[in-house]
């Protein structure tokens, strides 16, 4: 039994369980493994129409889910009208906008915690408002740069970006530790905000291969026949919901215009609007795909493309390997794996992607089978969530000594 006096609080602006997004997947999988050692309580925000919920989501890991207040929802709507897109996180930058019930739950949880993990910078002011406990800031990137691609090019857009940058700077400077999922993000944080690299801890994402059904290549071919797709060549791009998807999709559109015999299906989550005249006829979009549809597509597609430009899309690469989807990726997309570029997938520089797709289209079946089998084995043996918690345990021990 874990002593109840040992606890970490995690503050998030979105629900965690069941984990439906990449961010929720990371929090759930990483910290449920840590919860074998110390109790963890997540204080999350949900939509205003949702009900309050509290429960245990894994042994030692619990979540308290607070719906946005009416006033909080109204602020979100006003921001959306001004910016032209849904941007719920921006309202969290002003403490007077934050749901009072959320602040109360956060204060109560933090009072019993040895540290508070702030996931992304938006809730940092709220945490500082209710607690003076040590804060570990989990950074998923340079948020002000990521959001700049979505913000309008006007005074309001500039004002919002400056506000995000200011709270990021505060989170980086005032937190005891900064946690990132990749060395690339760690380097960006250190350079942008003049932070010592010794303050930043890189804890990579892991994998739960058992959660993803592996599709043998012969079954993939049968799926294509059932759907009448055996004569074509389908390349799928699964967007992460981050703003850098805009540049990646633009790259895919350029590639598709050169490879007219390859069909491209783009799953994206942030409602990007592209000029129809710029979309080649061999490209289709799906903006809302549930888990069942997504699984079917990943069990059918000939290739999953990862045109990573600024972020590796590491979580999706893990899923592709686990599911047995043949992959074409940029070098950045495989950087976190540190393996030979063509042993587990076809990879190269951005300008080489059209050539790699042609190679994938013409490659013999035995080579494809061998590559996806190797990829599955690599993920199963080397990418594990439970192997990544030692660094957090070191932080916990450091925190106990300091206190």
Please provide a written account of the structure.
The protein has two domains: 7-206 and 385-402, Glycogen Phosphorylase B (Rossmann fold), CATH 3.40.50.2000; 209-382, 3-Layer(aba) Sandwich (Rossmann fold). Helix content is 42%, strand content 17%. The protein has 15 helices and 14 strands. It has an eight-stranded mixed β-sheet, sandwiched between helices. It has a six-stranded parallel β-sheet with strand order 11-10-9-12-13-14, with helices on both faces. Helix 7 (183-193) links the parallel strand 7 and strand 8. Helix 11 (314-323) crosses helix 14 (365-382). The radius of gyration is 22 Å and the shape is globular. 42% of the residues are buried. The mean pLDDT is 89.
What's the structural blueprint in terms of helices and strands?
Layout (H helix, E strand, L loop, with lengths): L6 E6 L9 H13 L4 E8 L6 E6 L2 E7 L2 H14 L16 H11 L4 E5 L4 H7 L4 E4 L4 H6 L6 H20 L2 E4 L2 H11 L6 E3 L14 H10 L7 E5 L6 H14 L4 E5 L15 E4 L4 H8 L4 E4 L7 H10 L3 E4 H4 L11 E3 L4 H10 L2 H18 L7 H13 L1
Helix pairs in contact: 11-14
Task: Give a brief outline of the structure.
This protein is of the alpha/beta class. The protein has helices at residues 22-34, 70-83, 100-110, 124-130, 143-148, 155-174, 183-193, 217-226, 245-258, 291-298, 314-323, 331-334, 353-362, 365-382, 390-402, and strands at 7-12, 39-46, 53-58, 61-67, 115-119, 135-138, 177-180, 200-202, 234-238, 263-267, 283-286, 303-306, 327-330, 346-348.
């Amino acid at each position: 039994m874990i002593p109840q006096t040992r606890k970490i609080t995690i503050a998030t602006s979105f629900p965690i369980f069941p984990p439906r997004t990449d961010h929720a997947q990371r929090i759930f999988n990483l910290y449920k493994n840590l919860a074998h050692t110390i109790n963890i309580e997540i204080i999350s925000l949900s939509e205003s129409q949702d009900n309050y919920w509290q429960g245990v989501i894994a042994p030692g890991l619990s979540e308290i889910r607070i719906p946005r207040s009416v006033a909080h929802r109204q602020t979100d709507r006003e921001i959306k009208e001004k910016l032209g897109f849904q941007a719920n996180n921006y309202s969290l930058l002003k403490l007077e906008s934050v749901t009072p019930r959320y602040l109360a739950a956060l204060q109560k949880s933090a009072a019993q915690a040895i540290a508070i993990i702030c996931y992304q910078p938006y809730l940092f002011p709220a945490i500082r408002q209710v607690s003076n406990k040590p804060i570990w800031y989990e950074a998923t990137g340079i948020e002000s740069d990521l959001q700049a691609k979505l913000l309008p090019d006007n005074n309001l857009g500039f004002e919002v970006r400056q506000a995000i940058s200011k709270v990021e700077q505060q989170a980086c400077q005032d937190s005891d530790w900064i946690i990132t999922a990749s060395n690339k993000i760690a380097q960006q944080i250190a350079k942008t905000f003049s932070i010592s690299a010794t303050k930043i801890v890189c804890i990579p994402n892991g994998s739960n291969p058992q959660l993803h059904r592996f599709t043998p290549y012969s079954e993939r071919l049968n799926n294509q026949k059932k759907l009448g797709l055996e004569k074509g060549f389908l390349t799928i791009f699964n967007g992460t919901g981050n703003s850098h998807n805009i540049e990646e999709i633009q790259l895919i559109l350029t590639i598709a215009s050169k490879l007219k015999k390859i069909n491209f299906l783009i799953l994206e989550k942030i409602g990007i609007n592209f000029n129809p005249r710029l979309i080649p006829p061999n490209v289709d979009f799906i903006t809302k795909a549930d888990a069942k549809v997504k699984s079917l597509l990943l069990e059918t597609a000939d290739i999953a493309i990862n045109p990573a430009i600024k972020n590796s899309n590491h979580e999706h690469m893990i899923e592709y390997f686990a599911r047995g989807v043949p992959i074409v990726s940029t070098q950045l997309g495989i950087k976190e794996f540190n393996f030979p570029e063509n042993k587990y997938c076809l990879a190269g520089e951005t300008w080489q992607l059209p050539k790699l797709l042609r190679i994938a289209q013409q490659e013999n079946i035995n080579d494809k089978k061998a590559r996806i089998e190797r990829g599955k084995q690599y993920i199963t043996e080397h990418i594990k969530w439970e192997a990544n918690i030692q660094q957090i345990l070191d932080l916990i021990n450091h925190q106990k000594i300091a206190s």
